[in-house]
Amino acid sequence: MEYANPWQRIMRWVTTTNHKDIGTLYLMLSLVMLFIGGGMALIIRGELFMPGQQFIDPSFYNQMITLHGLIMVFGVIMPAFVGLANWQIPMMIGAPDMALPRMNNWSFWILPFAFTILISTLFMNGPAPNFGWTFYAPLSTTYGPPSTDFFIFAVHLMGLSSIMGAINIIATILNLRAPGMRMMKLPIFVWSWLITAFLLIAVMPVLAGAVTMMLTDRHFGTSFFNAAGGGDPLLFQHIFWFFGHPEVYIMILPAFGVVSQIIPTFSRKKLFGYGSMVAAIAVIAFLSFLVWAHHMFVSGISLGAELFFMYSTMLIAVPTGVKVFNWVTTMFRGSLSFETPMLFAVGFVVLFTIGGLSGLMLSIVPADFQYHDTYFVVAHFHYVLVPGALFGILAGVYFWIPKWTGHMYNEAMGKWHFWLSVIGVNVTFFPMHFLGLAGMPRRVPDYALQFTDFNMVATVGAVIFGFSQLLFLVNIIKTIRGGKPATDEVWEGAEGLEWTIPSPAPYHTFQTPPEVR
Amino acid sequence: MAMNKTRRTAIIFSSIAVLMFGFGFALVPLYNVFCDVTGLNGKITGSSSALINNEVDRSRNITVQFIATGNENLPWDFYPVIKEIKIHPGEMSRVEYFAQNNSDKDMVVQAIPSITPGSAAKFLKKTECFCFTQQVLKKGASMRMPVLFYLDNDLDQNINTITLSYTLFDLTEKQGESHDKP
Fold first, then answer.
1. Which residues of chain A have pLDDT under 50?
2. ipTM confidence
3. How far apart are alpha carbons A13 and A441 in whole angstroms?
4. Which among B10, B43, B71 has the least Cβ separation from residue A100?
């Protein structure tokens, strides 16, 4: 496009209501945040390379783990999936755009401000938020630093953005499907996002409520979480995890969707068990509301509650197992090829399953008493979030970027990126299982001598993993700028409406709805 | 036509979001109701129970232990005068806690009770307690604070020992604000 002056070029992005532009903005924000959050992770791992204090003090360490968690969850994984949804959902269901384009613009443009506010706390007098991403009361209320109020406001903004994004996605999927695109014909990525959007609408307001209670506890004399005034600090944990557990599925269900698109494409087969896939996502989403107290087994809840939450948590393994089974069965006797998206998808299936199984171990109450708050938990959730959610996103970007830019990415560099990432991830996080079982607590800037070796290994892995993401950065910048032209179909086995339009996808697509047979 | 449908969807789901925001706050009373009904958490209501003329059940002896904690290095001496008593269900008992303000300023505190096992909480009835109101102590002053209570006859047969714990919270700085009862 031609611009008269740079101002127009900027305002085009600020005022855009085009789903493809907004998708790009979301993905770019996520990419920037990935490197900020990743830098923090490297600071953490650097400090943990050896026992004793290396180069940051414990207070700064606490700020790093807090901001690393918040940025990775709210700034990387969630916006990246919303970006993929913005790009892909209208193209996959044959819609001209999202149903509420102006709200779409707004829900994105809130986010840069939210993260500016959040990150600015690092440069304020006094510490940035230092209570962990779970911000348990009273650590975040009575003892929270003054910057906590900026954190609260930032979380409000992120919540608002997510809720608006979710409403938009639901409205698009329910109302703008092309004629003939019945619900049970929807691509599985669209299904996974529809259910994720329901989860977002159900739990983000609860998070907003929790931070609002924090705010009034801190400044307006209420006592929601203050025992002295008749409140209860444990209540915070219940409210937080009522949000927090569905939140972890918000971060993984769209990845399930992406992988379920990629595996059939590169197996040149139909997805095995489409109906059971949809059902499994719905069941996981439903169960996610009934398991929150498994984060609180050691908080003194009653035996009955422990049993209930243990069994309900274990139950989630059933639909998750169905999904893994379906992915494997889709590949079984398929005509497989291993381009980068497929490599990341297969890596996802294998490594996410490891994370899922350690989750199953954590669900066992007596075992959890041992594992709670150790590095075993850190290993578990990094396995589901890094080679889980993040690999899902990377796979999706490699899969669809030829359609977005009209250029093929550099396959050799993509493969290098995959292999370095998969090695880096495992070298980083696998030793953490052993550290946790040996009793190393999480959220500590220093540790006992016997944990040194595994921590050194983990730090080496983190450096490999972190720097290999630069390959990804270089690769996508080069793909945006040029490269081998992509065909309309892009992938040999690709099926779906998005592959019927030209590459790169024109600025406006499906202005007359396609007919779906 | 499509626009109307979209608007309807947007309105419906925005309302759900608003409702869920309300639900977050509704979790607060729900949580307390849940604790009351199930007796989990050892939470007890801060108000006094009416004195009922219970029949004293002399066949059972229940040990009641008393614990005192000052929150956050509260510069007070705070302890039960008697560490434990043996009583029969239905029998009225009076115990005292001793408190002394060792700081160099006048202080206001609130005692928050908790009962173990949690299921005993609703059977321990207090007719008078220093935890019903905020307590004020001038610097260096001390006092004995009474608790009058009895155990309901319906107390679970398996329970032979009950622990009553009080934690003192410093409210001196919040004094200006209203805190009538826990």
1. none
2. 0.84
3. 45
4. B10
